[in-house]
Fold this sequence. Notes:
Elements: E1 13-17, H1 32-40, H2 42-47, E2 52-58, E3 66-76, E4 89-100, H3 109-125, E5 132-136, H4 140-148, E6 152-153, E7 161-165, H5 166-177
Parallel strand pairs: 4-5
Antiparallel strand pairs: 1-2, 2-3, 3-4, 5-7, 6-7
Helix pairs in contact: 3-5
Amino acid sequence: MTDANQSFDLKRVRIGPLADESPIHTFRCGEREIDDWVANKARKLCDINRVKIFCATEDGGSTVLGFYALSLDSKETRFLQRMFRQYTHLPVVYIQYIAVQRSIQRNKLGTTLLINALRRAHDVSQHVGFHGVALRSLNEDTARLYMRYGFAPIDKNVNPLMLLPIHSLRDLVSGQSS
């Protein structure tokens, strides 16, 4: 496993579905809400198909270096009335959490996880209709990261709900693959 004193090699990271033997319950990113969710709910929600969890591990390793959790959701449109007047709720792919193990934060793994999640959402958009990808930002740093990828805050909460519209998702993914 990579520790804080070693250089982190992003090229050795693989992202895939949560494996049965994955010790995700030991994951710690330093955000209490996320760490508690991982320790107490993540595997259960995955087992009952409420979320799908994708984990980053090093080649040949099982230690979870980072993860994201995806689900389908429906978000109220009261903040989006001008854009979507005909709807009361919008179907979205919802990124419940993106997190990186505390000892390797600030090594671009979070960005790599976000891009992987957006590619998966794009794949879903080829088969299921929805309006975009939504998530909640936990702080100003992550909000700035998400805005660089086209997410826009759609409420004024401390941890704003942010939306990446489907057309922006398609543009982003097609730009990433060229």
